[in-house]
Design goal:
This protein is an alpha/beta fold and 131 residues long. It contains seven helices and five strands. The longest helix is centred in the N-terminal third of the chain and has 10 residues.
Length: 131
């Protein structure tokens, strides 16, 4: 997944959650549960733990974040790949893509303007299975 995030300046909605995200990263559900069990700071802020889980691909795909205001080091420290925003905006211009399947330089891509709409759901989870 490529996320074009021109305006992103931090990962959390406040400084406390941002600090926890930087500390623990988007490492998936098992790692987050383990971190909650072992660390009082995360155990005392379960909304941050939920955010860490929600922001993870659970190892099913790569997340490449192309930020406007975060360094490559910051992006990679939380478990994402870093992408150059200008390069990706040129290649995957949101103004020229329509919702759903698109062809970009011979590559088939699926465009969605709001990844929070359920990209992380998969049939197994909905049916109570892990796969």
């Amino acid at each position: 997944m490529i996320i074009l995030a021109q305006g992103i300046r931090e990962f959390g909605q406040d400084r406390a959650i941002d600090a926890l995200i930087h500390k623990y990263g988007y490492r998936g559900t098992p790692a987050t549960f383990e971190a909650v069990s072992a660390n009082a700071d995360l155990a005392n802020d379960l909304s941050a733990a939920a955010h860490l889980i929600h922001g993870s691909s659970e190892g099913r795909f790569t997340i490449r974040l192309c930020p406007g205001h975060l360094s490559q080091e910051e992006v990679e420290s939380v478990g994402f790949e870093h992408g150059d925003l200008e390069t990706m905006l040129t290649l995957y211009n949101p103004q020229s893509l329509c919702y759903g399947n698109n062809r970009v330089d011979g590559e088939e891509v699926f465009f969605i303007s709001n990844p929070g709409l359920g990209l992380w759901a998969h049939r197994g989870k909905l049916l109570g299975r892990d796969s």
